[in-house]
Structure to design on (348 residues):
């Protein structure tokens, strides 16, 4: 059985020079030096049950009270090598939330015989790999359509007139957006989770790659029609797009600066000297607000229905996440600013 190594001591009775029933103070000369009383360590017993079947999977004897869930996962891993720590979800309740790796045994609402429930999260993949795959895909797929690789459009369009300049601009903006995201993933974000279930990557890639192909097909189509209000509309759209890209980047930098390297701490984000972050006064997740703005700009620029649809779906998804993050800020921080909305100031 795996346990954490720790020296246990029992409290020793204090001794003095006088025998029982002998009144009066002890003679100092005869008194033995008092031994230091060591505090008893109450070890825990931890049993881990399968969250679905309730079968006992593991029993850990003499676990230190200050052992973390992360350490318990490592001990469990030794007896079940197929379930490495990143794919374990340890819970207090079979259907409850996963405990954090930093949670300490003695601070959890359990007795000295603690029961935890285990769920297998499935094979894991690192977040960086996930993001790189998710974002490199749209970048390359879009470019395939832009350069009109053979067999995408019918041969009858081979000799159509050259592309409208907005098509080149859209390609630059789309590529810029995903290159920015790739670079931010590598050099800016400080993620708190190391991994994600492998199966999610298929879902996420279908979403990002599929939409990129759908949008690129229409924007780069030989019969693409440029925006109805021409240059004025394109200029306005480009301004909105660039403004929101800078805003999104500024928020990512502000979030990065909240977390010291190597830590997982979460703090309340506040406006900084950078005016693009002042939106924190009104919104909990302004990076999503700016992301929405960027895609609205791109929709206006291309005047293309699949882009509008992608913007709408992204907005719904980010609203769900922003509401969740906003709720957890309110729960975690008592002094959380009350004026803030999750994603849209005063509205949503
Ligand atoms: N178009 C779309 O459909 C779409 C959808 C989603 C995202 N995106 C884009 O992808 C970007 C990243 O998305 P995301 O969902 O990962 O954003 P996020 O949850 O806001 O996180 C961005 C980074 O900041 C950290 N962070 C967030 N709040 C923090 C706090 N209070 N204290 C310290 N660190 C904090 C996060 O760490 P954790 O690892 O702890 O979360 C993460 O590393 C978005 O800003 C957006 O531009 C686009």
């Amino acid at each position: 059985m795996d346990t954490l190594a720790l020296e246990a001591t029992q409290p020793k009775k204090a001794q003095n020079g006088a025998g029982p029933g002998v009144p009066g103070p002890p003679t100092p000369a005869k008194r033995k030096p008092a031994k230091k009383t060591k505090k008893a360590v109450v070890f825990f017993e931890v049993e881990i049950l399968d969250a679905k079947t309730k079968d006992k999977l593991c029993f850990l004897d003499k676990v230190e009270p200050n052992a973390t869930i992360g350490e318990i996962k490592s001990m469990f891993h030794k007896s079940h090598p197929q379930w490495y720590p990143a794919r374990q979800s340890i819970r207090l309740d079979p259907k409850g939330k996963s405990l954090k790796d930093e949670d300490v045994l003695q601070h959890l609402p359990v007795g000295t015989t603690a029961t935890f429930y285990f769920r297998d999260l499935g094979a894991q993949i690192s977040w960086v790999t996930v993001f790189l795959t998710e974002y490199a895909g749209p970048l390359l797929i879009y470019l395939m359509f832009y350069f009109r690789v053979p067999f995408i459009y019918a041969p009858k369009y081979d000799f159509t007139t050259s592309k409208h300049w907005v098509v080149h601009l859209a390609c630059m903006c789309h590529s810029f957006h995903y290159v920015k995201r790739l670079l931010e993933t590598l050099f800016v974000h400080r993620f708190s989770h190391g991994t994600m279930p492998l199966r999610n990557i298929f879902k996420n890639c279908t979403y990002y790659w599929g939409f990129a192909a759908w949008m690129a097909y229409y924007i780069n189509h030989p019969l693409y029609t440029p925006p109805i209000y021409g240059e004025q509309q394109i200029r306005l759209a480009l301004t909105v797009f660039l403004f929101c890209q800078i805003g999104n980047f500024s928020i990512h930098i502000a979030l990065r600066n909240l977390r010291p390297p190597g830590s997982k701490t979460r703090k309340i984000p506040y406006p900084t000297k950078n005016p693009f972050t002042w939106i924190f006064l009104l919104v909990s997740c302004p990076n999503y607000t700016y992301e929405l703005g960027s895609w609205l700009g791109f929709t206006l620029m291309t005047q293309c229905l699949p882009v509008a649809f992608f913007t709408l779906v992204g907005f719904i998804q980010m609203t769900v996440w922003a509401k969740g993050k906003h709720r957890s800020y309110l729960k975690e921080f008592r002094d959380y600013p009350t004026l803030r909305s999750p994603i849209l100031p005063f509205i949503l």
